[in-house]
Amino acid sequence: MTEHPKIIAVCGKGGVGKTSISALLTILLAGEKSRKVLAIDADPAVGLSLPLGIAVHKTLDQIRNDLIRSIENGEKSGKEELLNRLDYELFSSLSEKDNLAFLAIGRPEGDGCYCQVNSLLREIIQNIAARFDFVVIDGEAGIEQINRRVMEMVTHLFLVTDSSIKGQNVAAVIENVARKKIQFQKAGIFYNRMQDEEEVHQLLQRNKLPVIGWMPENPEIRKYDREGKSFFSFPDSIVMTSLKQAVQGFIYE
Ligand SMILES: Nc1ncnc2c1ncn2[C@@H]1O[C@H](COP(=O)(O)OP(=O)(O)O)[C@@H](O)[C@H]1O
Ligand SMILES: [Mg+2]
């Protein structure tokens, strides 16, 4: 445990590979058993638990709703109680993966607003991040969570893009909004699904952000996703090598 956890937010346009990369990063970081790692699925579409092979008992939104119900039923509980309860729920879902904790924010029930669960998420990150060495956040697509300062505590902004102009634009906008709204330490771009080095070379020429690294289009990732397999058994391949390099150069340094 450390007083200065590294909080890595994996952000970018929808579909660029945030969830796959978040899962593999989490697995790499948690590979060292002496470290405590928290993975947060901050995408209401819920997806990170599958590649991590974790069963979600309750999402943050469900915990919140249960709590609201018990308050409505006359139970007196304040923020302290809420945090204690969250603590319990959070840590009771750790069991299977010793040094890896997991939290999913979930989808608000009915017409519920995302802002409440998002602001709760911000508080949770503030309150519990210090108990971990690394926190990996699989962000919602786009800029909303940066804009709302849900990512306030983030130290490392891991911007994922594919080769599309749209993907690159979203990454640039996120970096720009983040610079105004949050105080991160490092931001960089990671190119996913690259065809070959020539494509990377072309992209680098018009890129203005620091580059974390790149990873090729890889049929194994698609296969794992298609079959809903845990990425813990992902083979040591060029995918893992490129992510290890990214961890080494961007996160550890
Ligand atoms: N490097 C890659 N090679 C091949 N398929 C990939 C790669 N990265 C992601 N994918 C596939 O792209 C789809 C979207 O990836 P995902 O990680 O869910 O993106 P996001 O979380 O950004 O929406 C998934 O089907 C996934 O298997
Ligand atoms: Mg996703």
What features would you describe in this structure?
It contains ten helices and seven strands. It has 253 residues and is an alpha/beta fold. The protein has a single domain (6-252), classed as P-loop containing nucleotide triphosphate hydrolases (Rossmann fold, 3-Layer(aba) Sandwich), CATH 3.40.50. A seven-stranded parallel beta sheet has the order 3-2-4-1-5-6-7, sandwiched between helices. Helix 1 crosses helix 10 (238-252) and helix 3 packs across helix 4. The two termini are 18 Å apart. The mean pLDDT is 88. Magnesium ion binds at residues 18-19, 43, 47, 138.
End-to-end Cα distance, whole Å, is 18 Å
* Strand fraction: 15-25%
Q: Any idea of the CATH class?
A: Alpha Beta
Q: How are helices and strands ordered from N to C?
A: EHEHHHEHEHEHEHEHH
Annotated CATH homologous superfamily: P-loop containing nucleotide triphosphate hydrolases
- The class by helix and strand makeup works out as alpha/beta
DSSP strand count: 7
Question: Radius of gyration from the CA trace?
Answer: 18 Å
Shape type = globular
Low-confidence stretches: none
Mean pLDDT: 88
Please describe the biggest sheet, giving its number of strands, its sense, and whether it closes into a barrel: 7 strands, parallel
Total discrete domains: 1
Q: What name does the CATH topology carry?
A: Rossmann fold
Bound molecules: adenosine-5'-diphosphate, magnesium ion
Helices, by number, come to 10
CATH-scheme architecture:
3-Layer(aba) Sandwich
